Amino acid sequence: MSEGTLLDVVYCEGWDPAARALTGRLSPGTARERDAAGEQYAVALVRPGTEVPLMLLEIAWKHRFARSVQFDGQRRRRGLYEFRVLETGDLFLVKIEQWTYQLDDQEEFDEQSAGRVEMSFGPDGEGWVYRAPKGYGGGSSNGRVQKPVSELTMPKPDFGDWKPFTNVRQLTLRTPDAPKSDPPLPVDQRPWRPSVPMRPSALEHMFTAGTRFSLNEDDGVVEVELRDAGKLCMPSGRLVASDPAFLDRETGQFTVTVPPGEYRVELVVIRFVDEPTHERVAAAKLVIADVPAATWEAALWPGQDPLFLGDGEFYGYGVDSGTGCFADATALPEEVDDDLIERFAEADPHVDITLDGVEGNIIAFSTGWGDGSYPTWIGRAADGTPVSFVTDMLVLNHAQVLTA
Question: What is d(CA 225, CA 238) in angstroms, rounded to the nearest whole number?
Fold first, then answer.
C-alpha cells in the first residue's frame, strides 16, 4: 500500500475464493457485537467505489486468532499473516505465507510456478522457513530462521483500529454512512474458519462398549470393546506416555500430575464387524477417577504451548515400534535393551512390566494401525480436577458414530 491511501472499511463474513468476491456483508453494529463476543467476522479494506479489497482481516478472538490477507490487482491472495493472542493480550505473528505471481492470468496458489515463501515462529522468535522462488517446479529450500520477538509482537487492536495491520503510516480508513448488509450466514456456510489445534473426537462414544463406528467405505464398520489392562502404580504421580522402545530416565513427563496411587488402565479395542478376528487398539485411558470428563485438553510436556500449533496439529509422542505405554516417572529404565524390547513386543494388545529395583510398573499397549504420532488428552471434571488421561490412536478421529 502506498502512502496517503484512503480505504473504505467493509465488514463481512469473508472472502469467497471461487467468486473472488466479498460475501455476507455485515453492519458495523453486528461486527462489533461479534468482536465483543469473540465470534468470527471479517474486515475488508477496499478502494472507494470498488469491490476489490487490498486487505482482508479475519478475526475470531474466542479462538485467540487473527489473520490478515493481502490481495493483488487480480484479486489473488498474495500474503497471509496469522496471529495468536498471547496471555499478555498482545498479538504474536506465528505464520507467514507469501506468493509471487509471474503472469496476470496465473492461477492463484499455482504450485508449479508461483513463487512461495512460508515461515512459522515459536514464542522465542525461532522458526522455520520454506522457500520455492519459482514454485515446486523450480526447486526449493528450507531451514531455520530467527526473528526478534519485538518484530513479531503487536498490541491487540480495539474494534475499528485496523491501521496497525496495514503497516502504512499515512492511511485514512472510513466506514460508509449507509453500508450494505446481508442476512447473517449460518456458521457452517461461512467462507473461512480460524486455525485451531486438533481437538479430541467422540471420546464419550469411544469409551462406551457396543458403540459402532463407520470408518469409511474401504475399512467398514467396527464395534467398541473395553478391556482392562491392569493397574498402573504411580509412586510420584508424574505420568509418562511414550513408545516404550524409547524409554529412559530422560523421557519427558506431562506437566499435569496426579496424587500418588494405583490407577486402572482401560483399552478401547475395536473389532471389525465383517471380520471378527480383526481388532485394533483405538485408545488407552488412565482412569484417575470414575467421573465423566466435562472438558478435554492436550497433555503437554514442559515448554509446549498449543497456542503455537497450526490448524489440526497436535503434540504427541512418536511411535516406531507399534507400541505405546503409560508409566510413572519412577518406573523408567536407565536404557531399553534388546531383552526389554522383546518383552514390550508381547503387548497383544497389552502387557504389564515391572523392572527390578524400581517402584512402579509400565503398561504397554499396541497402537492402532501401528507407527505414527499420537496425542494424549486430559479429561477434567466440572471442578477442574483431572479424572483421566487418554492416548488417542486417531483410528476413530474421523469415524461416524452409528449406534451407542
Answer: 28
Residues 91 and 66: beta-carbon distance below 8 Å? yes
Average pLDDT of the segment spanning 236-255: 94
Cβ–Cβ under 8 Å, residues 244 and 321: yes
Q: Would you say 107 and 20 are in contact if contact means Cβ atoms under 8 Å apart?
A: no
d(CA 222, CA 274): 8
Are the beta carbons of 360 and 233 closer than 8 angstroms? yes
Distance CA 30, CA 41 (A): 9
Q: Provide mean pLDDT across the span 195-199.
A: 94
- Radius of gyration, alpha carbons of the chain: 25
Burial of 245 (0-12, 13-18, 19+ CB in 10 A): middle
Per-residue pLDDT at 397: 87
Strand order from edge to edge, sheet including 362-366: 239-242, 323-328, 362-366, 350-353
DSSP for residue 399: P
Reported in sequence order, the residue ranges of 288-371 that DSSP labels E, i.e. its strands, are 295-298, 316-319, 323-328, 350-353, 362-366
Which residue shows C-alpha cell 467493509? 10
Q: Are 390 and 375 in contact (CB under 8 A)?
A: no
Cα 232 to chain centroid distance, Å, stands at 29
DSSP result, 59-79: EEGGGTEEEEEEE-TTS-EEE
Which segments of 187-342 are extended strands (E)?
212-214, 221-234, 239-242, 261-272, 275-287, 295-298, 316-319, 323-328
Question: Which residue pairs, CB below 8 angstroms and at least 24 apart, start in 392-395?
Answer: 392/200, 392/203, 392/282, 392/283, 393/280, 393/281, 393/282, 393/283, 393/324, 393/367, 393/368, 393/369, 394/368, 395/215, 395/270, 395/280, 395/282, 395/283, 395/368, 395/369
CA 83, CA 156: separation in Å to the nearest integer? 10
CA distance 390 to 285: 4
* Residue 55, beta-bridge partner list: 45, 70
| pLDDT (tens digit per residue) in 36-78 | 999 999 999 998 888 889 999 999 999 999 999 999 999 999 9
Nearest to 49 by CA among 5, 20, 4, 7: 7
In the chain the first and final C-alpha atoms are separated, in Å, by: 56
Q: Name 186's bridge partners.
A: none
